[in-house]
């Protein structure tokens, strides 16, 4: 299935979209937060996330948006404010990057185990040390085993739309999990695109009001949140978290169906996009903005007759196991691009590689899989790099010995 | 060629320099770095015995710009105080200087900062206080004054946290406030802090020329200059100098430091004694109420032992103790066990 993800198809005339603006990823997220009519925002600066809080502050100061806006004293406090606001039935929003995200980890952990559905944007940034402001995915990946929804987008348009989609999924009564929306530092947070901004009416039609119902913390609804359960109930609670994540797969599907019905056929598939894969033999798969050089390389290689395609994985948690297995089983070889690294892991490769290998293990037609570690700390992954990755991946289809082969792209040695 | 000026440990001013600064032109932090270099040179401190500590923020970049021969540790956001405490326990013979900012100290690192002072860890701790997060382009910090206006027009609604007051309350034993542009006052205050054994906190107002230097800001260069409220003129007299001639009984106040050096305070306010804790607190409150920056040596406690003394760490630092001392022989354990069986 082939789909291009460049621009929304609906015009402005039908009232679904209100206007166009030149926005970077951070500003687009802020517009999404505004359209989601978020009640409480807690903020604490760290690059590259900072511009999200600045853009929100400006929207409020300009009178374009009304929300409680709290500058916290650290990320940890920021995330706690967001979590508690969410528990009293306020739609809540926070965000961070890199080490800031990690500093608030205690709060992030309990937000998931308390099954609260606020949204956090993660402006992906390399973890210290050594210090770097550029993108790397290990920060957001840190919540992958904690009961979070985790999703990457590739353009400011998608970033705005996934604030709405993310709340729709997270707040669903069958889900109630926190949502991490990951946007690549610099390449998405600070690159500008023309963004079509939905009308308030369309956003409202898509995103129902937040209602925590029987779990709302309120004097009229006396309940205990986060009691000490010890060995009596922890296993059951963990299992409930997992059941919610399983249900989230279905809710994600529903959410995109509803989104497409209102905003035009924006997303052909909910969990991932495929680009020129119909007759492809070799594909690359990655998350985030590596899709841009990936898709461009596909276009160029297609002109030369190579049967190549690109798969952009959007939802990492819950992982779309069945769908992705069916998709990748169609190809002879798959190159997994990781902008992260799983230190000391079984295959000494990236996190995405591990997950995809595991996903494909039971596949009847298992393609050859190779891994690329690249773009760490914000280093550029160019179109030429993508072409090189396609070349290595294509070779893997012919040589059994290359299965599991790992290449560090652009490494000075 | 003229002979190069050297200090008492035969080092030149150049020996106290660091890498070229990357701060914005006119940043107050650069002026503070200059005062730091001046104080270390004048105090004849050997830079190779110094450890420079910092956290995250514009301020925390500045230790790269002075004392290039010293040890250095750039901690993660807000953790400088904890690292300083650890460094002090491991080797209390190192001379620690920490540079942090109001974001690093008064927000994310406040907990660690409080406990460092509670323990009276020996350190010269400079807060380069500009009321904003400069490195992330100017968000209000916890020391932004209520009513101060952000560059974009937003008015701060939260009251400021006063670091000097906090330091006195929490057990710091040398508390001063100064202005980055007043080297005449700041350099001797840093020298005094270096001579002091314990937590010496210097809250230095250092205007951010890029993000907090506009009309309506209470930390702008113009506003700060117009609202300085010095308690006294400050002179630092090293232990080897005779100062009898300069002392004016009745108007001057003398503070004797642990190493025998002295700080001579030429009083501008009547009857101010920096060892009077209550008076120090009252002075800060009165000054804040008038929208002024009280500067000078606000509080000094010569009697409280520092953390290393409290722990009885002895002369040889833990980092230099040999295995034979750190690991007692089997006989020692046998002796303890025998004692327990009695």
Walk me through this protein's architecture:
The complex is a heterodimer of chains A (413) and B (342). By secondary structure, chain A is α/β, with parallel strands linked by helices. Chain A folds into 2 domains: 17-263, 3-Layer(aba) Sandwich (Rossmann fold), CATH 3.40.50.970; 272-408, Rossmann fold (3-Layer(aba) Sandwich). Chain A contains 13 helices and 15 strands. Chain A has a 7-stranded mixed sheet. In chain A, strands 9-11-10-13-14-15 form a 6-stranded mixed sheet, with helices on both faces. A two-stranded antiparallel ribbon of chain A has the order 1-8. In chain A, helix 13 (383-398) links the parallel strand 14 (368-373) and strand 15. In chain A, helix 1 packs parallel to helix 7 (156-170), helix 3 (75-87) runs parallel beside helix 5 (105-113) and helix 7 (156-170) crosses helix 9. The longest helix of chain A has 34 residues, at 230-263. Chain A is globular. Chain B is of the alpha/beta class. Chain B has one domain (13-311): Rossmann fold (3-Layer(aba) Sandwich), CATH 3.40.50. Chain B has helices at 28-42, 58-61, 80-90, 102-108, 110-119, 163-170, 183-195, 221-226, 277-289, 307-311, 323-326, 330-341; strands spanning 50-54, 71-74, 95-101, 123-129, 132-133, 139-140, 174-179, 199-205, 228-230, 232-237, 252-256, 262-267, 293-300. In chain B, strands 2-1-3-4-8-7-13-9 form an 8-stranded mixed sheet, with helices on both faces. In chain B, strand 5 (132-133) and strand 6 form a beta hairpin. In chain B, helix 1 crosses helix 7, helix 3 runs parallel beside helix 5 and helix 4 (102-108) packs across helix 5 (110-119). The longest helix of chain B has 15 residues, at 28-42. The model of chain B has no long low-confidence stretch (mean pLDDT 93). Chains A and B meet through helix 2 and helix 4 of A and strand 6 of B.
């Amino acid at each position: 299935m082939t789909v291009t993800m460049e621009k929304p198809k609906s015009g402005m005339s039908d009232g679904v979209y209100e206007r166009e603006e030149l926005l970077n990823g951070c500003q687009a997220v802020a517009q999404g937060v505004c359209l989601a009519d978020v009640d409480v925002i807690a903020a604490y600066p760290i690059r590259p996330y900072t511009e999200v809080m600045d853009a929100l502050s400006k929207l409020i100061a300009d009178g374009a948006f009304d929300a409680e806006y709290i500058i916290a004293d650290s990320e940890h406090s920021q995330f706690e404010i967001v979590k508690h606001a969410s528990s009293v039935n306020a739609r809540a929003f926070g965000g961070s990057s890199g080490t800031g995200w990690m500093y608030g980890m205690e709060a992030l952990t309990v937000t998931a185990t308390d099954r609260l559905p606020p949204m956090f944007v993660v402006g992906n940034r390399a973890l210290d040390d050594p210090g770097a402001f550029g993108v790397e995915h290990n920060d957001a990946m840190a919540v992958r085993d904690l009961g979070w929804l985790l999703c990457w987008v590739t353009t400011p348009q998608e970033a705005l739309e996934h604030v709405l989609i993310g709340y729709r999924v997270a707040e669903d009564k069958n889900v109630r999990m926190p949502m991490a929306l990951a946007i690549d530092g610099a390449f998405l947070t600070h690159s500008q695109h023309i963004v079509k901004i939905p009308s308030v009416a369309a956003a409202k039609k898509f995103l129902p009001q937040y209602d925590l119902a029987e779990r709302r913390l309120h004097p009229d609804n006396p309940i205990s949140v986060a009691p000490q359960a010890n060995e009596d109930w922890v296993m059951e609670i963990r299992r409930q978290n997992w059941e919610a994540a399983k249900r989230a797969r279905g809710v994600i599907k529903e959410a995109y169906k509803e989104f497409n019905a209102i905003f035009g056929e924006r997303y052909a598939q909910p969990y991932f996009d495929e680009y020129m894969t119909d007759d492809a033999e070799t594909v690359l798969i990655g998350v985030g903005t590596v899709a841009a050089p990936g898709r461009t390389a596909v276009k160029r290689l297609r002109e030369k007759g190579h049967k190549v395609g690109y798969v952009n994985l959007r939802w990492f948690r819950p992982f779309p196991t069945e769908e992705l297995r069916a998709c990748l089983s169609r190809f002879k070889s798959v190159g997994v691009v990781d902008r992260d690294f799983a230190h000391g892991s079984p295959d000494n490769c990236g996190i995405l590689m591990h997950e995809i290998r595991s996903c494909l293990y039971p596949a009847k037609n298992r393609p050859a899989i190779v891994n690329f570690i690249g773009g760490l700390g914000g280093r550029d992954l160019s179109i030429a790099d993508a072409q090189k990755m396609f070349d290595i991946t294509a070779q893997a289809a012919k040589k059994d010995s290359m299965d599991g082969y790992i290449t560090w792209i652009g490494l000075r040695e | 060629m003229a002979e190069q000026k050297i200090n008492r440990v035969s080092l030149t001013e150049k020996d106290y320099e660091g890498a070229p600064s990357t701060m914005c032109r006119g940043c107050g932090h650069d002026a503070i770095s200059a005062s730091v270099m001046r104080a270390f040179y004048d105090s004849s401190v050997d830079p190779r015995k110094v450890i420079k500590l910092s956290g995250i923020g514009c301020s925390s970049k500045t230790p790269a710009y002075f004392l290039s021969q010293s040890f250095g540790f750039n901690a993660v956001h807000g953790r400088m105080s904890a690292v300083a405490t650890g460094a002090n326990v491991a080797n209390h013979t190192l001379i620690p200087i920490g540079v942090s900012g109001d974001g690093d100290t008064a927000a994310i690192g406040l907990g660690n900062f409080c406990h460092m002072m509670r323990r009276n860890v020996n350190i010269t701790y400079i807060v380069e206080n500009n009321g904003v997060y400069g490195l992330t382009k100017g968000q209000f910090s916890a020391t932004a004054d209520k009513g101060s206006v952000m560059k974009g027009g937003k008015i701060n609604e939260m009251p400021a946290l006063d670091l000097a007051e906090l330091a006195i309350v929490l057990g710091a034993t040398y508390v001063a406030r100064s202005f980055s542009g007043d080297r005449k006052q700041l350099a001797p205050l840093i020298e005094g802090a270096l001579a002091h054994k314990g937590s010496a906190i210097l809250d230095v107002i250092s205007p951010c020329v890029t993000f907090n230097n506009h009309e309506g800001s209470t930390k702008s260069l113009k506003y700060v200059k117009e609202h300085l409220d010095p308690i006294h003129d400050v002179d630092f007299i090293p232990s080897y100098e005779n100062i009898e001639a300069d002392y004016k009984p009745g108007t001057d106040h003398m503070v004797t430091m642990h190493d025998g050096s002295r700080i001579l305070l030429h009083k501008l306010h009547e009857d101010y004694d920096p060892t009077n804790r209550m008076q120090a607190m009252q002075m800060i409150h009165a000054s804040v109420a008038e929208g002024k920056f009280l500067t000078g040596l606000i509080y000094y406690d010569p009697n409280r032992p520092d953390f290393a003394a409290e722990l009885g760490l002895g002369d040889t630092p833990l980092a230099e103790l040999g295995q034979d001392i750190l690991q007692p022989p089997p006989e020692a354990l046998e002796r303890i066990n025998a004692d327990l069986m009695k």
